[in-house]
Design goal:
Layout lengths: L16 H13 L2 H23 L10 H37 L15 H20 L3 H9 L3 H8 L3 H14 L1 H20 L5 H19 L7
Length: 228
């Protein structure tokens, strides 16, 4: 079973979309500073990496094979670095959200405690590859895979699981309450689209609220502890 309560054990409340989002908003609004700063830092880090590796603006010379090769290699390295940093940022946000769900306001140091870094990176890579392959296969399989692996990272960070176990755990947990979780996923996507439309500034709020809401749903669904 999952956790001390066993998988599927009743959590503090039955999962509802409204409860998850209101929980996310309540926790964020009680501790907005650290979350907003973390989202800004995440954006800046990703922008810097993108600038370092993709900052070439001039035209390639098709005759210059060595330049083209170097350019391609740089782009490949840049893509990998961007992905790995993205996985670590995701894990950091999950750690902060787990702290909120445990009833402790995360400090900046909390976000650095991402757990097993190797498992975090491997989980991110496997989920990313699986989603990409699925998207190539008529899109829908990719969306289904992304949905079923939604909680792979929380299982790594919260329960110290390896990548394969975490992905299997996510599949099992998501399938156990798929109907409600599809509605929650759509609601969170909608919130982030609204956040992006507000000159992007709304994302400073919508991203933390979404991550906390998702982590709340993860704990409720798996019978883990939630402190209101």
């Amino acid at each position: 079973g999952f956790g001390s309560g066993g998988f599927g054990a009743p959590g503090p409340t039955r999962l509802s979309v409204g409860d998850a989002i209101s929980f996310g908003w309540r926790k964020f609004s009680a501790n907005p500073g650290v979350w907003i700063v973390l989202v800004v830092i995440a954006f800046v880090i990703q922008a810097l990496i993108n600038g370092i590796f993709n900052g070439f603006d001039y035209t390639q010379d098709s005759d210059n094979i060595s330049f083209t090769t170097a350019f391609s290699a740089t782009n490949l390295i840049g893509t990998l670095v961007t992905a790995v940093v993205g996985y670590l940022i995701e894990a950091a946000f999950v750690r902060g959200a787990l702290s909120e769900v445990d009833g402790r306001k995360p400090a900046f140091g909390t976000f650095l405690q991402v757990g097993p870094i190797g498992a975090v990176i491997l989980t991110g890579l496997l989920v990313g590859i699986g989603t990409s392959v699925g998207l190539v296969l008529c899109i829908l399989p990719g969306l289904v895979f992304a949905f079923l692996t939604w909680w792979a990272m929380p299982f790594v960070v919260d329960r110290n699981q390896d990548a394969i176990t975490a992905i299997k755990s996510s599949f099992t947990a998501i399938k156990s309450n798929a109907g409600t979780l599809i509605l929650l996923a759509l609601a969170l996507i909608g919130i982030n689209i609204l956040g992006a439309l507000l000159c992007g500034l709304g994302l400073l709020v919508s991203i933390p609220v979404s991550i906390i809401a998702s982590t709340y749903a993860y704990r409720i669904t798996t019978g883990g502890p939630v402190v209101a």
